[in-house]
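In the previous lecture we treated proteins in isolation. Real proteins rarely work alone, and many bind small molecules. This record shows how such a complex is specified: first the sequence, then the SMILES for flavin-adenine dinucleotide.
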Amino acid sequence: MAKRGFEESLGKYIVPSLCMGCAACVAVCPVGCLEYVDGKPILSGECISCGICSSVCPKYGSPAKEMEKAFFGRERKMDEEFGIYRRVTIARTRNGDIQRFCQDGGVVTSLLLYAFEEGIIDGAIVSGRNEESPLKAYPKLAESAEEIIRSAGTRYTYSPNILLLKDAVARGKRSIGFVGTPCQIQAIRKIQAASLRRYGGIVNFTIGIFCSGCFSYNGLVNELIRKKMGINPEDVEKVNIKGELIVKTLNEGTKTISLKEAKKYLSGCVSSCMDFSAELADISAGGLGLEGWTLTILRSEKGEALFDGAVSKGLLEAKSVSKDSGLWKMLVRLSRRKRRRFMKNITHF
Ligand SMILES: Cc1cc2nc3c(=O)[nH]c(=O)nc-3n(C[C@H](O)[C@H](O)[C@H](O)COP(=O)(O)OP(=O)(O)OC[C@H]3O[C@@H](n4cnc5c(N)ncnc54)[C@H](O)[C@@H]3O)c2cc1C
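The predicted 3D structure, ligand included, written as C-alpha cells:
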C-alpha cells in the first residue's frame, strides 16, 4: 500500500471524527512534524509521507482479531466480552504509603513498585500528581519508588502518557511499565506491532485502566466542581466515581453529583472509543464500584506472573471473582455499553 502523509491519512480521516487524542502519532513521528495541541495532533512541520503516524494510530485500520492473535496468541472467544483473560480478581495493596495516595485498591501502583524493586523495570510511564493543580493529569516518567508511589490516584482528565516514550528512550530506559487508558494501550500495541522497536521494545508490560470517559479540565474543574457543585477546586482532596461523582473536600466533607449531570462535561474522546477495560493490556484495573479494592483482569502470561509475584511478596492481597458474581456482570454490562455508544456514534458520520 502506498505510504500516505499525515494530512492524507490521519489529518483528513481520523482527526476530525475518530481521534481519541492518544498522541501515538506525535510520539513516533521521525521528523517531529506533528504537535499535540488541545488534545489532538496537528501538522506543524514538513511531513515526509513515511506513513509511520498512520501505522500506529489505533483508529487507522486496526483489526482487533489480529492484535489479539499477535499479543495473546489467539482471538477472543464469544463469551469473552471484556476481552481475553486468564483470571479475574479483586485485590488491594498492603503498602501503607500506597494506601495514602491510591484511587481504589492501589493495585496499579503496587505492581509498578514490585516490578521496579525486583529490577524488572527501570522506570514507569504514568500520570503525575501536580501539587499546584492536583486535578490536572499530565504524563510522568517515574524513575524512583517514591515517584511511582506519588503518582498513584486517578486524575479524571486526559493524560497523553505516550508522549513520554521519547523521553524514556532519551533517558536510556531499557524496560518500562506503561500505565494508560484503553486508547493508549491500543496505541502502544500498535507501536509494538509496527515493529518500532526503539519505542515499543522498551515497554516491558502495560497496565490499562478502565475508562468510561475523561473530563475536559475546564469542564471538570470550573464548570462542574466550581460552578455546579459550589466547591473551590483548591479544597478538593479526592475525586472518585462510584455510581455518582464523589468529591471529597478538605473542609466540607463529601459532596456528590449524579453521573448523568457529570457526563455533560466529558471530553469528545468518549464517543470515539469502544474499549472500556483496556482489552489489549497485560493487566487491566478498575474500581467498578468497589470500596478500597481494584477489580483486576490478568490477561497475558506476563501480567499474571507479575501479579502473582506481587502477591507472593506480600504486597497485594487478592480474591478471585466468579463468573456468576454481580461484579462480573457489571464488567460485561459496562463493556457492552461502551461498544454500543461507539457504534451509535459512527452511524452518525
Ligand atoms: C479518565 C479515567 C476514567 C476512569 N473511569 C473508570 C470507570 O468508568 N470505571 C472504573 O471502574 N474505573 C475507572 N477508572 C480507573 C480507576 O479510577 C482507577 O484508576 C483504577 O481502579 C485503578 O485503581 P488503583 O487504586 O489500583 O490505582 P492506583 O494505584 O491509584 O494507580 C493509578 C494509576 O493510574 C495513573 N493515572 C492517573 N490518572 C490517569 C490518567 N488520567 N490517565 C492515565 N493514567 C492515569 C496513575 O499515575 C497511577 O499510575 C478511570 C480512570 C481514569 C484515569
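Summary for your notes: The CA atoms of residues 70 and 193 lie 8 Å apart. The chain has three domains: 7-56, 85-212+272-346, 217-265.
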